[in-house]
């Protein structure tokens, strides 16, 4: 089996990591609170919310207004 997929020996299906509860997503190294999880085939990505800046592939921080 490939990571990010499940199957029955005949067909493979994508696992939607974004649908997991927050504790399961944390175990996967999920997205920070400043980002949205986007499911992709076999994986997921984190997209920063408006007024947030990416600091790595999973984390975004809020931009301070001065």
Explain this structure to me?
With 66 residues, this protein is mainly beta. The chain contains 1 helix and 6 strands. A hairpin with a 2-residue loop joins strand 3 (35-40) and strand 4. The longest helix has 6 residues, at 22-27. The model has no long low-confidence stretch (mean pLDDT 83).
Outline the secondary-structure elements.
Blueprint: E1 5-7, E2 12-14, H1 22-27, E3 35-40, E4 43-48, E5 52-54, E6 60-62
Antiparallel strand pairs: 1-2, 3-4, 5-6
Based on CA atoms alone, the radius of gyration comes out at 14 Å
How are the strands ordered across the major sheet?
A: 1-2
The overall pLDDT average reads 83
Low-confidence runs (pLDDT<50, min 5 residues)?
Answer: none
- Under the CATH scheme, which architecture would be assigned? Ribbon
Number of helices, counting only DSSP H or I runs of 4 residues or more: 1
Largest sheet: 2 strands, antiparallel
Secondary-structure-derived class: mainly beta
Topology order in helix (H) and strand (E) letters: EEHEEEE
Q: In one word, what is the shape?
A: elongated
First CA to last CA: what distance?
50 Å
State the helical fraction: under 10%
Give the amount of beta strand, in percent: 35-45%
